[in-house]
């Protein structure tokens, strides 16, 4: 088995989930358009796109809640078209609000849920409770749980039958910052320690960036790009440079004359430009040579957000 290293996390390159040309048409409208990607074991994979991009529809197709118009979904080598029941034994999903009885305890809910799966033992129930960190509150009634705890219980339910893929649609919806952080930590733990492929969807780039190893960007039902988060960070070599100068108008004209393709913006007493880090000394030398005095230089990185906005043609992903 080939292995590679994603930002310090070792994951197997063996895909546990494969989508090939997955397409959904409703009437004449193509909602999801030929999506193709693989997710390996142990990876947290983000499905990022603006509202209405087709994320939920794709997830609903993967878990069999709706039919694909075209394409194929393979889970652990099993086609969901050929052997749906068997393929689903490898998937745990939290797509709609998990079914829970509020007047029963978390533990009683898990017991009820476990009856649906023949092979779930009491030891496994205890194991998933530990995994999601609910051991201290598991005998409280669910009505006393916070939203974050209910979500954990939902994840515990989804994990009972030992799936190799966990799918979670918009997991952070409604959670406060502390809840989001907890969720992020235990989803990453599940991927790292249990080798589960975790697939999450969101329209929030800031969350995906902290949670995922890789992100697929989807817009208007189409896959625009797939990137590894750590690669993205390394690629950001281009920097925004703000140079405080004695004469901003003259500095702008000089730099513009020397680099005709560069956009040079005046900000108060400074000029601002986006250039490769290696070009900075040349610009500085040139300005000094043109008798422009320099007072300060500030560097800012082009953010991941800027990159995604570029990729999606400016459509807002916040
Ligand atoms: N049953 C349906 N009939 C008609 N159109 C639908 C149906 N289900 C979804 N759509 C449309 O398909 C598009 C994609 O919807 P989907 O819910 O998959 O997007 P999403 O990326 O999950 O968005 P959000 O972040 O808002 O949940 C939307 O324009 C939606 O209106």
From TrEMBL:
Q: Per its UniProt entry, which superkingdom is the organism in? A: Bacteria
For this chain, one GO molecular function annotation is: ATP binding
- Span-the-membrane segments of this chain are none
Source organism per UniProt: Paenibacillus yanchengensis
Answer whether the UniProt record assigns the keyword Transferase to this protein: no
**Record protein name field:** ABC transporter ATP-binding protein
Q: Which Gene3D superfamilies match?
A: P-loop containing nucleotide triphosphate hydrolases
InterPro entries attached to this UniProt entry: AAA+_ATPase, ABC_transporter-like_ATP-bd, ABC_transporter-like_CS, P-loop_NTPase
Q: Where is the ABC transporter domain?
A: 17-245
Protein family? Belongs to the ABC transporter superfamily.
Q: Which UniProt keywords apply?
A: ATP-binding, Nucleotide-binding, Transport
